[in-house]
Amino acid sequence: MIQISHLHKRFGKFVALHDVSLSVTRGRVTGIIGPNGSGKSTLIKSILGLVKPTSGSLSVNGQLLNGDAEYRRWIGYIPQLARFPQDLLVHEVLAMIKSLRGKVAVRERELIELFDLDRELNKKIRALSGGNRHKLNIVISCMYDPELLIFDEPTAGLDPVSATNLKDFIQSLKKRERTVILASHIMSDIEELADDIVYLLDGSIKYHGTLRELRVQTGQPLLERAIVQVLKGNAA
Amino acid sequence: MKPVMQICLFSLRDASRNMWVLLYSTFFALVTFGLFQFQAHSGKVAVSLMSLCLVLIPLVSVLFGTMHFYNLREFTELMLTQPVKRGAVYIGMYLGLSTALIISFVIGIGLPLLIFGMNNPSQVISVLVLMIIGSILTLIFLAISFLLAAIFDDRGKGIAAALSLWLVTALLYDGLVLFIAMAFSEYPLEKALLVLSVINPIDVARVTLLVQSDLAALMGYTGAVFDRFFGTYLGVTLAMLSLAIWVAAPLTFGLARFRRKDF
């Protein structure tokens, strides 16, 4: 689904990504983990075209990213922070996205009901709680049933019930054979949801493989300890 | 073109509900109404309004545009993850916000003038010119604000740059021109002053309004030179060209910066 080859990204003197090459398999959930500042957000923003690579190439669904915006029809992005213009109504924001995409939002009704947003549709954005804004973001990103979904810190700031609902939703995407990328530093979320693991540190990939392989290779059932083991191995 | 119009309409709807845009309109309406109460002659009302517009429109446009751009940063990111080109997002947002501020300004001064009425056709023309020049100043300073916000990631730096630019163009520039005029008073400076006036968009707006409202006669010899120059087709063309460049240049540079920008 995604091919990344020798990707470099530099912000001034700071190297955010260094020679990252990666292949994300269709229909799997890939967890991108790493400490703050390791390059997780830069990597997913590069896939979205929000960050322009210093060098290297990316392709999504076989289409090389070259400034054309059309490939984003296949992508739904759920950022960590959901902010919309405060004075608009919820249904106006949905209408705006639909007018930009121009096709029928096949899952809109289903998702509005799933996330219990029916009663919020005529409210102003400024009247919505943080949790409901996040839910609106998920509806916007998933209502076109895109092939690729990218979540940046999906459960950060959510209450336990909302976080559980969201994780259930991601599991349902997996069953629908959607490709999902999760960037998070919450290891338990990744352990619960991901098939494949990409561990980033200082802008470089330190581990890329399946979660099962990682556990077998390191002999550690817990992801956090397995990663420490990988780092010790790299250091040695 | 379709996404540009969609984003423009969306941005216009959002901005038209913004408290500051509504206050902007109300402020102009109250001031115009107040001026009519204190000055019986509607021509003088237009002159007082002109002075206010030349200071207030650039300030509000440049500050509001910069803050609006930063406030919508996350939503801009969300729009950029849709199948829409960056140029469409930038131009759509710019046109939407410009339309909101221009409508707000035109209604603000237009309503009291409609209520109190104009004495003769020349005053109607004066007010129309004021509305056009005010609208062009809005377009210029919003284009500058978007450029500054696209350059500076840091909100504080962006707003400081916006305020500094307003300070220079609205206040300090005139001081500089005055200093040059005094320091070189023994030399024929009319042409140099003409050039200096054409460089600063607020000065171009001021001179255009002064010449149009026959007040240049009060400015002595220099006023006569300005009147003679800006009263000609060449003068009007140069003034309009300068204003057009002041809209197009920041918009073009801002768009280029926005296309390269990392979010």
Largest interface in this structure: A-B, 30 and 25 residues
Q: What's the oligomerization state?
A: heterodimer
- Give the helix tally of chain B: 11
Report how far apart the termini of chain A are. 34 Å
Largest sheet entry of chain A: 6 strands, mixed
Quantity of strands of chain B, as a count: 0
Rg from alpha-carbon coordinates of chain B: 19 Å
Going by CATH, the architecture of chain A would be: 3-Layer(aba) Sandwich
Give the H and E element order of chain A.
EEEHEEEHHHEHEHEEHH
Characterize the structure shown.
The complex is a heterodimer of chains A (236) and B (263). Chain A is an alpha/beta fold and 236 residues long. Helix content of chain A is 36%, strand content 26%. Chain A has eight helices and ten strands. In chain A, strands 6-7-8-3-9-10 form a six-stranded mixed beta sheet, with helices on both faces. Chain A starts with a strand and ends with a helix. In chain B, 86% of the residues lie in helices and 0% in strands. Chain B has eleven helices and no strands. Chain B has helices at 2-16, 19-38, 42-71, 73-80, 86-116, 121-151, 155-183, 190-199, 201-212, 220-230, 233-260. In chain B, helix 6 packs parallel to helix 11. The mean pLDDT of chain B is 86. At the A-B interface, helix 2 of A face helix 1 and helix 4 of B.
